[in-house]
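Handoff note, outgoing to incoming analyst
You'll be picking up this chain. Sequence as last confirmed:
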Amino acid sequence: MSLLAPVRAALPAGARPYLEPAPLAALALGISSGAPFALIAATLTTRLAQSGIEKSTVTLFALAFLAYNFKWAWAWVVDGVKLPLIGRLGQRVSWMLLAGVLVIAAIVNLAFADPANDIVHTAWAAILLAAAGATYDIVIDGYRIDLLEPRQLGIGSGMSQYGWRIGAAAAAAVALVVAERSGWTLGYLVCALFAAPAMIAALVLGEPERRRKVVARAKGMRSAVASVIGPFSEFLRRSGAFVVLLFILVHKIGDTLANLTFRLLFDDLGFTNDEIAFYDIGIGFWALLVGVFVGGWLYTRIGMKKSVMLSLILMAVSNISFAALAAAGHSNIGMAAAIGFENFASGFGGVAVVAYFSALCDLRFTAAQYALISAAASIAGRFLTGTTAGGLIEAMGYVNFYLLTTLAAVPGILIYWWMMKSGLVDEAIGTAGTEPAPAEVPVDRKVE
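Most recent structure output, in case you need it:
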């Protein structure tokens, strides 16, 4: 990382923070986080659709993502359990290596599944990859938040979003292109390589110093009990905790409900794999990069609260573009516009919302608390997608469905507006968003 110092010095002051070690690590972490998600989201949807699986069954596969929503149930293990042998590398580093290996094994397993002949095997393979990917996310998020200083949260969130999209887009594109020429098995096997960047980043940078401080002081039975109940009790004792939790639960319903059905729309409109790879992945990727850049730029100028509010509005309105595409039919221009707007809004929102959720964490429980927050953020949308999306599309059509998802985003906007006016946004911030130095982390506070 010291080799980048001359490059950093030559850049404008506003660009230098992006080449600091922690934000660069966030980029690598995001790559490994995005790839498993993409392989069981849009990519698997396309694979199932091309295998002749009916829509109601395809959308039912969205329930595999519930592993991401329930990752809080075992996230405390990542914070509190030291692994034998490789545990000497550090709590975060050792878990990063283990979780990365699990993801690789799960991708290989899904690669050899055949939806047309054994849908049950495919379903279990998707669930196992979701569980492995969720575990990887627990470690990745904990490592990222421990590594980033409060001043780096916005930039680090942006870099993480860049990485996530790079990983998701690259894995999805590689899978589609290779599958078109050599079959889905090889397509998935190649994508197992995307699990490596996070493992490499953890080995290069080592254990975050703020995490070392916490682990050094956390010993004995009291610490073990605290790792289980502490993340929940500490968060729920904060002012307005239940209102904040309600916002987390509902703010992304419309966005999640819409996003996991895009590939069904594209397939029904007759787009080819190459068209999907170019428009959905190619143009979408660049639109997201612009959204992240604009989000980071505005974040430093208007602050976290206004940035989050603006991102919520943009993400809600973006669903209307897919209603327009559904009405227009097979239109390359329409697909480019819809994908471009949606990804711009997603990139913008990723900077503000991820920074806000990261700031909500307590440094003693970063992995567990962020797992709880991120899981709660999309559980309602994923459950509705898996249980009702396919039926709603067949009953009311794509146009009305995407208009409905826009309306579903309104409650989250209203709740956050009230949180801003009442001061709850500031009151609920955790030590990850306020503590400037490792030595000042209040790790000895009693967990009630």
